[in-house]
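A common beginner's mistake is to predict each chain separately and then try to dock the pieces by hand. The better habit, illustrated here, is to supply every component at once so that their relative placement is modeled jointly.
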Amino acid sequence: MTAASLRARVRAEMTDEIKAAARRHLATDGANLSLRAVARDLGMASSAVYRYFASRDELLTALIIDAYDSLGEAAENAPDTGSAVDRWLAVCHAVREWALANPHEWALVYGSPVPGYQAPTDTVEPAIRVILTLGRIVQDASASGEVEPGEPIGGRLGEDLAMVAERAAPGAPPQLVGRSIAGWIHLCGAVSAELFGQLNNTIEQRRDFFEFQMRGALTWIGLRASS
Amino acid sequence: MTAASLRARVRAEMTDEIKAAARRHLATDGANLSLRAVARDLGMASSAVYRYFASRDELLTALIIDAYDSLGEAAENAPDTGSAVDRWLAVCHAVREWALANPHEWALVYGSPVPGYQAPTDTVEPAIRVILTLGRIVQDASASGEVEPGEPIGGRLGEDLAMVAERAAPGAPPQLVGRSIAGWIHLCGAVSAELFGQLNNTIEQRRDFFEFQMRGALTWIGLRASS
DNA sequence: GCCATACCGAGAGCACTGCTCTTGACGGCG
DNA sequence: CGCCGTCAAGAGCAGTGCTCTCGGTATGGC
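With all components supplied together, the output reads:
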């Protein structure tokens, strides 16, 4: 007998099965998936699902957290060798490939907010895993001089960025952190554009164009290949 | 009596009223707004709405087209003076400000695709108005030499970009068009990030940071202030 | 001026949704 | 061994998109 009681173990398995079924429905119905349909798939009454998730929103929250964690893991497992440029690009491609493999989870997490849904605070920690991964790269590059610090940023924006830098990449100059956030935003935009169909009937060489964009962003961010 | 019959005029007004009410509901319910609720607001039976829109999807399509047109108009009305850099930045700010004023329409159009919704072909023409506006700026800049052409892009991606260039900015080098599309994608990403809450609790100086990003993208794109 | 026609609004109805409440039964812990 | 916590199921409520049918009304042709 494991430490967890049988009751608890069965419950955990059931919870996972519900989430798996819900993920399947995410593909067809998006964020407004039908709890009843999920229950039907599992051969149980819809009311039974409420034993495991108090509401549809709570189920969505679980899916969101899983998605963030899965994406965060993919980013952290990206090849971590070579220059800062290589590492950054590896994370970019890892994020893009995860999104291509899990398009509906990407939409759930980085698409339009679900109307009426308020993300609980449990979601913020897994949400920033990718950014922290990028932050580490920038921090390392900054420490080893693989970077153009660039013009400092004054005013309130400078203060904002200094505070973010303290949390995400201590020691890196705020302006570099600002450019890095911009790079992350561009990354999100590029993935969303590809996934949401904005490139349809224009650019077919998606991977090449993506890399082109990310390399372009990198030149502005100021990461250098290792000297 | 006007050229249009009274019947047709009343019908057009009714159609507009339905769209206006639907836009109001967009704010609370997003893309899955309730046709019945819209009908209730207008004091009519839900079935009557179907005289004007064959389905909820058709209503959404009308809202999408209106949103694209409204955004396109905002972009085209952006100050059209000064250097290519100034014009490009003016369009960026116009887009952002439109999105801030109409967040739910932005989400409808650039957010996650509505599940099960297939955009009809009528939407593509209004959809590209903003891109064409940017294309004109790049084309002008290219013609007047306000631009760094940059390294040519070979391979299939080069062909893709050449075809896009032909449509959106004839005469401009494909690599410049590629960088411009990347700039447009960054613009979309920056607006979405701000609107969808990714900047919450980090950067408060939204406008400054947005301009910072767009200027950064511009340096890479290679537009110069007029010489 | 009249009438067939096209259009329009209302209502009922179908199958579906999220969610609640009650009921009955089973299983693990003291 | 008994009891209590947990579970699944079913009925039910209010709401949804959409269809169909039914009367009423304005329009265009004669």
